[in-house]
Amino acid sequence: MIRLLVALVFALGTNVPLHAEELFVSAAASLTDALKEIGAKFEKESNIKIVFNFGASSMLARQIEEGAPADVFFSADEAQMNRLQNKIVPATRCDLLTNVLVVIALKDSAQNLSQLSDLAKPEVTRIAIADPQGVPAGVYTKEVLTKAKLWDKIEPKIAPTENVRATLAVMEAGNADAGFVYKTDAMISAKVRIALQIPAEFAPKIVYPAAIVAGSRHQDQAQRFLAFLKTEEAGQIFRRLGFGLTQ
Fold first, then answer.
1. Taking a C-beta distance cutoff of 8 angstroms, is the pair 34, 210 a contact?
2. What pLDDT digit, counting tens, does each position of 187-240 carry?
3. What is the H or E stretch that residue 150 is in?
4. pTM of this prediction?
5. Is residue 202 part of a domain?
6. Are 92 and 226 spatial neighbours (Cβ–Cβ below 8 Å)?
7. DSSP states of 47-74 as a string?
8. How far apart are the C-alpha atoms of 25 and 218, rounded to whole Å?
9. Which of 71, 85, 199, 236 is most buried, by the most CB atoms less than 10 A from its CB?
10. Of all residues in the chain, what percent carry a pLDDT higher than 90?
11. Is residue 151 located within the same domain as residue 193?
């Protein structure tokens, strides 16, 4: 009886029903704030508890390939979703969001970056970006700098990080002069400012696809969550945090 009462108090205290089902969602690090807020609303309405696994999309894709538990995959680029074509339910794949890449500096920094070529100046000694070998934000950054014919000049200054949120943390700590992050990441920080928008001719197309993982044992619940992500309620949260909607 005591155990039952303790369990009941715990469930009430967390606003999650006692016998809530669990849905594992692997999502890009840049979605952290939006999905935590949306997930809390979904839990209240659905009796389904969301367990998030946030990280670089490339790392999450590798985990799913290796059999890690996941019901839904929400990527920051199409390449990582394409990589999992045989691991997802193709009919459930949908492009939900868009984003843009920006260059940031510390809010009180004297760095004057009016164009991408300013990153090659001697006073810019360290540039933080997500790992360009596979992390979407880093891949996008290398694409931008390559198109601008700046990658070879700037590469020695590059400080790669685990994911875009790690890049933001490096910048907030003052450990780099400039950094490439998504606009949505820059918007949540009180310590950095957007120093430079990426010119249209170099700007990559950034799309966030989501899909149900084929090995999921909770297909119906996963479908409900995907449907919730497309609602106006979720859309308002995404827009408020700087994302664009594809639908």
1. no
2. 999 999 999 999 999 999 999 999 999 999 999 999 999 999 999 999 999 999
3. none
4. 0.88
5. no
6. yes
7. SEEEEEEEE-HHHHHHHHHTT---SEEE
8. 11
9. 71
10. 90
11. yes
Based on the structure, what is the number of domains in the chain?
A: 2
Dig out the tokens for 96 from the structure.
């939900």
Domain range for 45: 2-98+208-245
Question: How many other β-carbons are positioned within 10 Å of the β-carbon of residue 168?
Answer: 26
Whether the Cβ atoms of residue 179 and residue 37 lie closer than 8 Å to each other: no
Residues 107 and 89 in one domain: no
CATH number, domain at 43? 3.40.190.10
Q: Are residues 94 and 213 in the same domain?
A: yes
Looking at the structure, tell me whether residues 170 and 191 fall in a common domain.
Answer: yes
Q: For residues 177 and 234, state if they share a domain.
A: no
Q: What separation, in Å, do the N-terminal and C-terminal C-alpha atoms of the chain show? A: 50
Location of structure tokens 């193709």: 90
Over the stretch 132-175, which tens digit does the pLDDT of each residue have? 999 999 999 999 999 999 999 999 999 999 999 999 999 999 99
Could you tell me if 85 and 132 lie in one domain?
A: no
Compute the half-sphere exposure of residue 105: CA atoms within 13 Å on the CB side of its CA: 16
User: Which one-letter amino acid corresponds to residue 39?
Assistant: G
Which tokens sit at 99?
Answer: 């984003």
